[in-house]
Amino acid sequence: MQPPVIKLEKANVLPLNINSNFSFRKETQFLNDPSTFRTSHSEVVNFQRRSYMWPATTALDISELRGNYFNFYWWNHGTPENVTIRFEYRQAGLSNEVLAREITYPHAQGSIRSIFKVTGDDYLENGRVTCWRALLIVNNQIVALTQSFLWQ
Hints:
Layout: E1 6-8, E2 22-32, H1 43-53, H2 59-65, E3 67-91, E4 98-119, H3 120-126, E5 129-138, E6 141-147
Antiparallel strand pairs: 1-4, 2-3, 3-4, 3-5, 5-6
């Protein structure tokens, strides 16, 4: 289940306090929209496309799975902390409006994967994600961040 969407009045609302115990190790993105796919003869690419459409069986199921998928791999090398990861993004149909989704991890430590999806009606009505950033928040302070090239 995806976290609810939050409309942010201002994207930079928390103090920056980078902590070397927290870091993003990797981000992956996938735009799951068959209308944008190029023909591929690679079984790896075709398998990935099919995996994002699983378990869709009807046209309604397929439209619910269309959209942007973001995977953030991050870690906490320090003591367990209550960590919130906030995914802030803009969509093509919403001009400069910033939306956000948050997931909270109590006592987070070690390597963690966070998944955010902008799919279904959010994607069909407002378009693809044009830029984004991800923040790790501890005690209302940003301890690590990563962002797309176009984020401002």
